[in-house]
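Try this one yourself first.
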């Protein structure tokens, strides 16, 4: 049996800089990997089928783990059936990239188990067909992202801790994108500008999320007492950077919803993964 972690991510900012003729939005963001993990276990079976365990509320055929496995099947030189069990710790629909990270870990592991022989760039391209956030998890590095999220420039970020809150609500990404007042013309910028003044970089979805989802607003108001609260991705999670003067345990204890203390990662634990 092979057991591997799937790290979560934060979007340190998220700007929409335009919209393509096909409806897709151009964006700029920074992906910061964090040490909040789902875990996947892979074990060969005799059925020649992919069987998922540990899921709730999602049909197997609709799960990104299953879709990732199906995408790799045509490349398999040594195919075998697998039982794949997921231990879910990253909340769903939270803007933390849990499903995308699950898909990326599946691509990385099955590429080796099935002896597909694909390189990281090829896996990332397959991952992109599953979701815009999958490639950054395949590469396993923090990145400045542009386009629809597929153009990645890998960056080094300072080691930090974050407090992350998960309001008890599920945000509809489609609903947020459909709002006419969504800012879609933020001025394109550069990573060096972010490094000079990160406070100038916010999340275009944040005002909408706060207005449409009272529990998101409540969580942000709570964190704003101690630092600068930010929305990650299209939510629902909000976060703030830990500073020396914070009483972290008290903040976590009195949070209005599920709270996490997380550390930033320089790279994914799967970046140099090898099947032994």
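Now uncover the answer:
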């Amino acid at each position: 049996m092979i057991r591997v972690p799937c790290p979560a991510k934060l979007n340190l900012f998220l700007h929409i800089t335009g919209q393509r003729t096909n409806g897709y939005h151009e964006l700029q963001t920074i992906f910061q990997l964090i040490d909040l993990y789902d875990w996947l276990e892979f074990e060969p079976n005799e059925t020649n089928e992919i069987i998922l365990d540990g899921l709730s509320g999602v049909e197997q055929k609709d799960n990104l783990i299953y879709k990732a496995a199906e995408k790799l099947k045509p490349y398999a030189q040594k195919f075998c059936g697998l039982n794949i069990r997921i231990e879910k710790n990253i909340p769903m629909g939270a803007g933390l990239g849990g499903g995308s990270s699950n898909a990326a870990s599946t691509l990385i592991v099955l590429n080796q188990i099935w002896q597909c022989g694909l390189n990281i760039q090829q896996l990332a391209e397959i991952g992109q067909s599953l979701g815009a956030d999958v490639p950054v998890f395949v590469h396993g590095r923090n990145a400045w992202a542009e386009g629809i999220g597929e153009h990645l420039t890998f960056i080094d970020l300072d080691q930090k801790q974050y407090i992350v809150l998960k309001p008890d609500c599920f945000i509809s990404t489609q609903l947020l994108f459909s709002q006419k007042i969504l800012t879609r013309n933020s001025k394109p910028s550069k990573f060096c500008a972010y490094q000079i003044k990160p406070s100038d970089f916010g999340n275009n979805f944040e005002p909408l999320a706060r207005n449409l989802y009272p529990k998101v607003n409540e969580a942000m108001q709570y964190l704003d007492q101690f630092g600068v609260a930010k929305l990650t991705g299209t939510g629902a999670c909000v976060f703030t950077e830990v500073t020396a003067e914070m009483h972290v345990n008290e903040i976590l204890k009195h949070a209005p919803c599920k709270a996490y203390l997380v550390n930033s990662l320089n790279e994914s634990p799967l970046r140099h993964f090898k099947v032994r």
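Discussion: The chain is about 30% helix and 30% strand. The beta strands are 2-19, 25-45, 50-53, 81-87, 143-146, 151-154, 161-166, 230-231, 238-241, 258-263.
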